[in-house]
């Protein structure tokens, strides 16, 4: 399978503080891949660096072979990448419909609002509600629906299960399975190992701004003790 996203020797800084020290990993088209690691390991920063949202970064990031390390965020979005941030980024003064329509459809083939609502039926009767009146789970679905509308094919999801009830986490898991079946490529940052283990083809373990291990999905259970050591559990 072709490599869709290739990250080589990626470095990134906040001001003078370097937090990514050479991240190396790749994702093939249609895969679900996780970044696992302790708080502060550099997972969110990696997603931000891929999207061009860090002031300073170095190394190489290729999308279908094309280099994007020096590209601006809007050009990266045009390549079909989108970030669903941990804090979800729902605009409180806008309705669900307005939140869905807000980002421009930068890449071709984005889902229509009707298709987004088929995927997230809970949002249908909430279309005219204010974004922040939604439950945490509905806000997460809105945040996901919004990036599907942009036409992105490579989805960077930052802890989509954070703070959600188990039943909602299951729903999010089923949605990710559907998106995989539809051919989306997904990079998932997770703290919830049980959730990640049921979904991902491969896992990368991140420590202090580097990938320190790669675990194939089927081997995760057998290597759970090692993983718990990495995660400090
Ligand atoms: P978490 O699950 O806690 O978000 P993470 O693995 O995603 O963890 P990052 O948020 O990428 O980790 O943080 C990596 C490092 O960068 C940490 O040492 C963190 O303190 C630092 N950091 C994060 N955001 C900033 C910022 N805006 N300014 C300066 N340093 C930051």
TrEMBL record:
GO MF annotation: an example: ATP hydrolysis activity
GO terms, biological process: L-amino acid transport
Keyword Ion transport listed: no
Signal peptide: none
Domain ABC transporter residues, every copy: 5-233
Gene3D superfamilies according to UniProt: P-loop containing nucleotide triphosphate hydrolases
Keyword set, alphabetical order: Amino-acid transport, ATP-binding, Nucleotide-binding, Transport
InterPro entries: AAA+_ATPase, ABC_transporter-like_ATP-bd, ABC_transporter-like_CS, BCAA_Transport_ATP-bd_LivF, P-loop_NTPase
A Pfam family: ABC_tran
Annotated family: Belongs to the ABC transporter superfamily.
Protein name: ABC transporter ATP-binding protein
Organism field: Xanthobacter tagetidis
């Amino acid at each position: 399978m072709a490599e869709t996203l290739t990250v080589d020797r990626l470095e990134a800084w906040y001001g003078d503080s370097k937090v990514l020290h050479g991240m190396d990993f790749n994702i093939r088209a249609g895969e679900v891949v996780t970044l696992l690691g302790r708080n502060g390991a550099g997972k969110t920063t990696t997603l931000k660096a891929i999207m061009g949202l860090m002031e300073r970064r170095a190394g190489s990031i290729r999308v279908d072979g094309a280099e994007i390390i020096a590209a601006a965020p809007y050009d990266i979005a045009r390549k079909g990448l989108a970030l669903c941030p941990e804090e979800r980024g729902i605009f409180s003064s806008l309705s669900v419909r307005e939140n869905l329509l807000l980002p421009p459809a930068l890449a071709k083939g984005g889902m229509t609002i009707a298709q987004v609502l088929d995927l997230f039926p809970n949002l249908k009767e909430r279309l005219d509600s204010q974004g922040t009146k939604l439950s945490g789970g509905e806000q997460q679905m809105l945040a996901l629906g919004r990036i599907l509308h942009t036409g992105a094919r490579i989805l960077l999801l930052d802890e989509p299960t954070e703070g959600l009830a188990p039943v909602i986490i299951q729903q999010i898991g089923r949605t990710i399975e559907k998106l995989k079946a539809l051919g989306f490529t997904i990079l998932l940052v997770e703290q919830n190992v049980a959730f990640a283990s049921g979904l991902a083809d491969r896992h990368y373990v991140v420590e202090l701004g580097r990938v320190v291990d790669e675990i194939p999905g089927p081997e995760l259970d057998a290597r759970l003790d090692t993983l718990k050591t990495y995660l400090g559990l």
